[in-house]
Amino acid sequence: MNNNINWGIIGLGNIAQEIAKCLKLTKNAKLFAIASNTKKKLDQFKKDYNISSENSYSDYQSLIENKDIDIVYIALPNSLHQKWILKCIEFNKNILVEKPAFIDFKQAEEVFLSPSLKNIFFGESFMFRYHPQIVKVVDLIKKNKIGKVISMNSNLGMNLTDKKKFFGFFKKKIDKKKRIFNKELGGGVIFDLGSHTLSMALLIAGLVKNIDLENFKFQNLNKTYELEDIDVHSTVDIAFDNMFKVKLQVSFSENIGSKTTIFGEKGKIIIENTWNPEKGKIKIFCEKEEIFNFSNSNNIYSLGIENISNDIINKKIEASYPGMTRKEILINSKILDYWKNEKK
Question: According to the model, what pLDDT value does residue 294 have?
C-alpha cells in the first residue's frame, strides 16, 4: 500500500460533504470514488470534487469492488450500516463508518465475529476525539492535574423540533423524511447525539486505572418521545465499575449546549464546546484557574482523516489513540442499545 490512501464514500449526504472537503486538505489521503443512488447528488459531487466518471457509481457495491480503493467511508443512514459493513468485509476493504456504527448490539456482535474482519481496519467516525483540545484534556488528566477523575457531566443538544410563528407561538417542525426523525432509518437523539456523549464518556472513563468499562449500570434514565417513538430528549446516569460516574443529556428539543465538565478529586476541567469547536477552549480549576485556547487548530475531520490514513498505511486494524478502538465500539454499541431500548 502506498503513502496516499484512496478513499471511497458511499452515501452523499451532509456529513459526506464535510469529509470530502477535508480530504482535499490532507497530505496522505484523497477522495478517489463516490457512490449514490441519487443521480442529482452524484452529479454534483462529481463536479464539486473532480471525480472521474469511471469512479462515480450509482450503486454502492460497484464502488466497494473497485480494487484501487483503500478505505470505504460509509455515510449512509444508520439502518443500512451493517449491510454495507459486511459487504466491505467480503471484499476485504478497510472501513470507516459514520456513528453510530450499529443500531443494536446484536449487529455489532455479528460483524465482530466475522473471521475476515481480523486483518481489516475498522473504525467509527468520532472525529471530535482528534481535536487538540481533547488531546490536551487527556494529557492534563494523565499528568494528575485534577487528581483521580471521579465523574463527568456532558450535554449536547439544540432545538430542532419547534419553529417560531407570529405572536410568539411555536409550531412543531418534525419532518419524518429526515433521518434523525425517522424510526426506520435509525433516527432519534440517542443514536445521533447520545453516541457522541457516550464516546466522550468512554474516553475519560478509560483513564481510570484498572476500570472495567464493560461493567456499567444505568440510573435515572428519562426519555421524551415525538411521533412514532422517536426519542427527542434524554438524560441518563451511568456508573462504570462503581469507579466513574457520568451524567449525559442530549436533546433535539432544547438548546442545552455542548459543554462537558470532568471532576477530579482535587479539581475540574470544563470544555466549553466539546464536539466541533471552531475555537477550542478548556478551563481547568485546581489550585488556580488556567485557560487553554486552540484558535489555530485544524479542522477535526482533516485531523481524523490524516490519523486514520496513517493507521491504514501502518497496517493497523483499529484507530490509534485517541480514536475509537474496536473494544470501545462494541461497548458503545451495547450501551447505546440499552439506552435506546430500555423503558424508563
Answer: 79
Work out the number of other CB atoms within 10 angstroms of the CB of residue 267: 18
Same domain? 107 vs 252: no
Domain span at 277: 132-296
Q: What are phi and psi of 256, to 5 degrees?
A: -100, 5
Same domain, 144 and 248: yes
- Calculate the alpha carbon distances from 184 to 179, 226, 228 in Å: 9, 14, 10
- Residue pair 130/307 in contact (Cβ under 8 Å)? The answer is yes
238-266: pLDDT as tens digits: 999 999 999 999 999 899 999 999 999 99
Q: Which residues of 92-111 are buried (b: 16+ CB within 10 A; e: fewer)?
A: ebbbbbbbbbbbbbebbeeb
Residue bearing cell 490524516: 306
Residue 165 shares a structural domain with residue 123:
no
Q: What pTM, to 2 d.p., does this model score?
A: 0.92
Q: What is the CATH number of the domain that holds 232?
A: 3.30.360.10
Among 127, 143, 174, the domain boundary falls at 127
Q: What are phi and psi of 35, to 5 degrees?
A: -145, 135
- Kindly report the CATH number assigned to the domain that includes residue 23: 3.40.50.720
What interhelical angle do 105-112 and 326-341 show, nearest 10? 160
Query: Other CB atoms closer than 10 Å to residue 131's CB: what's the count?
Result: 25
pLDDT on residue 159:
87
- Give dist(CA 248, CA 237) in Å, integer: 6
Residue 144 shares a structural domain with residue 74 = no
